[in-house]
Design goal:
Length: about 270
């Protein structure tokens, strides 16, 4: 009996391995499905730990003052990326919503911190993945014989080493990629003087452009499959953030009431 169970387990593991596709080999649709599952897990964890930021009403000023942003550029994140970063802030108890990439932090002398995992092993702290589209990549530049061109560079100790010369190649179609963001508190020795404050100018400009357009911008996060009530709250929060209006936990109000509230606040802001 035990051998049969072992055989079934081995067979299941083989099937799982066979069905798994490396990220590099996935289509944009497959990548999007994977990252959406990842986003759903973060939001679900926020719900499970009772740290759902959308469960309380927020003024437009409070929304702006807490919107996640890149601490290297000062620019705020938008769309679903801003939601999962807000959730990460609440889950981990970060004081502010300033995030940064590994490369940006390294250029400011930051080194990523370690943590001890559940197995008692030492590992790097984890960040939050967000998506972006890329239309080019860098590949090794080849000589007339098809071999990589090399150039001499100095390493940190001043030693001369060689590295391949890269060239920019445009893709036939854009590719969905991810980049990991870390909270600034996850780095040691980060030069705080080089970090920027939240800059809402670009967000305000976009709101002004959208204000007079006839279309009614409304988020649609149904693909996360988080349930009707949660999805509606997140949609309304994202719409409030996009338009710069107050957010109220209004999942039981009618669509007519929601739009009337938005128009009233937008008219007041334009006076």
């Amino acid at each position: 009996m035990k051998n049969r169970k072992d055989e079934k387990q081995v067979t299941a593991e083989k099937e799982t391995t066979k069905d798994y596709t490396q990220w590099e080999d996935r289509s944009n649709a497959e990548r999007l499905k994977s990252i959406n599952t990842y986003y759903k897990m973060i939001i679900a964890k926020s719900i499970g730990e009772k740290k759902s930021f959308w469960n309380k009403s927020m003024s437009s000023k409070e929304i702006d003052n807490t919107i996640p942003y890149n601490a290297s550029t000062g620019k705020p994140y938008n769309g679903i990326a801003s939601l999962v970063l807000r959730a990460a802030k609440e889950i981990n108890g970060y004081e502010d919503s300033n995030f940064i990439t590994m490369r940006q932090a390294n250029l400011k002398h930051g080194t990523l911190k370690f943590q001890i995992n559940e197995k008692g092993e030492k590992e790097y702290v984890r960040g939050v993945k967000v998506t972006h589209m890329v239309n080019h990549e860098y590949v090794n530049k080849l000589d007339s014989h098809g071999k990589p061109l090399m150039r001499e560079v100095k390493d940190k100790e001043g030693n001369i080493t060689q590295e391949p010369v890269k060239e920019k190649v445009f893709l036939k179609e854009p590719k969905l990629e991810t980049i990991t963001l870390y909270h600034v508190s996850q780095f040691d020795n980060l030069d705080q003087s080089q970090l920027k404050q939240r800059d809402l100018e670009s967000l305000k400009q976009r709101r002004e452009l959208e204000k007079d357009r006839p279309r009614d911008f409304r988020s649609n996060l149904d693909f996360l499959e988080l349930g009707k009530a949660v999805t509606q709250d997140l949609n309304n929060f994202l719409t409030s953030q996009y338009k710069g209006i107050d957010y109220q936990k209004i999942q039981h109000q009618s669509l007519k009431h929601i739009r009337q509230n938005e128009r009233t606040q937008e008219q007041g802001r334009s006076l």
